[in-house]
Design a protein that fits this description.
Elements (H helix, E strand, L loop, with lengths): L5 H12 L3 E8 L2 E3 L5 E3 L1 E7 L6 E6 L7 E2 L4 E3 L8 E8 L6 E7 L4
Length: 110
C-alpha cells in the first residue's frame, strides 16, 4: 500500500528545513534618466532560498533637494529643485542588510 502524499510531504519537508538565505537583490531599471519634478517606479527582485523575507527598504543617495525621496513601494520622486546630476537608489534586503541592489539615476540639468 503506497502513500500517495509521501512525495508531497518530502517536498514540503525540504522547503521548510532549508535555511532561509538571501542570495541577491536586483533593482529594475538599473539605469534611468528622470527629469526634475518627475517620478519613476523602481522594483526590486530578491532571490532567496527557503522562506526568506523578500521585502526591501529603499533609500536614495546623492540628492540635494529635500523633495527628492523614494517611497516604501519603490516610487522615486525627483524634486523640482534637484541640482544633483546623478542619484543612487538602493534596495536593501530586510532579511540580510548585507544584500542590496542599486540603480543609477541621471537627472538632466534642464
Amino acid at each position: 500500500e503506497s502513500n500517495f502524499l509521501q512525495p508531497v510531504l518530502e517536498t514540503l519537508l525540504f522547503y521548510t528545513t532549508q535555511t532561509p538565505t538571501i542570495t541577491n537583490v536586483t533593482v529594475t531599471p538599473a539605469t534611468a534618466q528622470v527629469g526634475k519634478g518627475a517620478q519613476l517606479q523602481l522594483s526590486a527582485e530578491v532571490k532567496a532560498t527557503g522562506f526568506a523575507n523578500k521585502k526591501v527598504s529603499w533609500n536614495v543617495k546623492g540628492a540635494t533637494s529635500d523633495e527628492t525621496t523614494i517611497r516604501p513601494n519603490g516610487l522615486l520622486v525627483v524634486g523640482s529643485d534637484e541640482t544633483a546630476a546623478s542619484l543612487t537608489v538602493n534596495a536593501i534586503s530586510l532579511a540580510n542588510s548585507s544584500k542590496s541592489g542599486s540603480a543609477t539615476i541621471t537627472v538632466p540639468s534642464v
